[in-house]
Amino acid sequence: MEVTQRTDAGARQAEKRLIAAARRGDCAAMRELIDLHKDRLFAFVRRMIRNHHDAEEIAQDALLKAFASLDSFSTEFRFSTWLFTIAYRLCLNFLRRKQSLTGEIDFGTMPSAGPAADFAASQSDSAEHIKKILWRAVDRLSAPQRATVLLFYQNEHSCQDIARVLELPVATVKSHLHRARARLRELLEPIVEREPANFRILAGLAG
């Protein structure tokens, strides 16, 4: 634990030095900050809006907005938290324009689970098979629930950091996480019953 804390503290200090240099107009520092976060940022945005081209534009816009207002960023927080906050707002704006977002995504636009034959997979493809089905289920969550799951599991943000990104109370974030797990169990249960051997990993959703 102590080693982890020292590593985190060192990473935060390195990040603060990069931000200070970027604020002075150091292009190399800006590029390093971009390289540190661009892949996770794009993955988050793409999963939120489910469109590769639009995700590229939104991720780029988020980075541009972040650097344009870098002077207003407080180094009390992680740069990634602030960057994901900007990206999340852009995603919500995009979703509202595209689908008049009211809480739940229109399931009619989502790929159907299909018959059992659609999920037949060989032993060697089982990991990819599971991943696709899990993401298909995550895509059916509401936007706040989906963002919470992505930030918590994929980006390893704490509930406190997620609360800052989503601009919600920590208790609401925990509620989103709890409801998302319940919704995922509901969505995946019929598939798990058909393929119990492949989905023992999903026992973790009960936590």
Question: Can you offer a commentary on this structure?
Answer:
With 207 residues, the protein is an all-alpha fold. It has two domains: 8-102, Rna Polymerase Sigma Factor, Chain: A, CATH 1.10.1740.10; 110-207, Arc Repressor Mutant, subunit A. It contains eight helices and no strands. α2 runs antiparallel to α3 (52-68) and α3 (52-68) crosses α4 (79-99). The radius of gyration is 19 Å and the shape is elongated. Residues 101-124 and 201-207 have low confidence and may be disordered.
In CATH, what is the class of the largest domain? Mainly Alpha
Beta-strand percent range: under 5%
- Termini separation: 23 Å
Q: Structural class of the secondary elements?
A: mainly alpha
Determine the CATH topology of the largest domain: Arc Repressor Mutant, subunit A
Mean pLDDT: 80
Number of helices: 8
Helix content: 55-70%
Give a short account of the largest sheet: none
Number of domains: 2
What coarse outline follows from CA principal-axis ratios? Answer: elongated
Name of the CATH homologous superfamily of the largest domain: Winged helix-like DNA-binding domain superfamily/Winged helix DNA-binding domain
Residue stretches low in confidence (pLDDT < 50, at least 5 long) are 101-124, 201-207
Rounded radius of gyration (Å): 19 Å
Number of strands: 0
List the helices and strands in order: HHHHHHHH
CATH architecture of the largest domain: Orthogonal Bundle
Task: Give the topology.
Elements (H helix, E strand, L loop, with lengths): L1 H22 L3 H23 L2 H17 L10 H21 L26 H13 L4 H12 L4 H8 L3 H25 L13
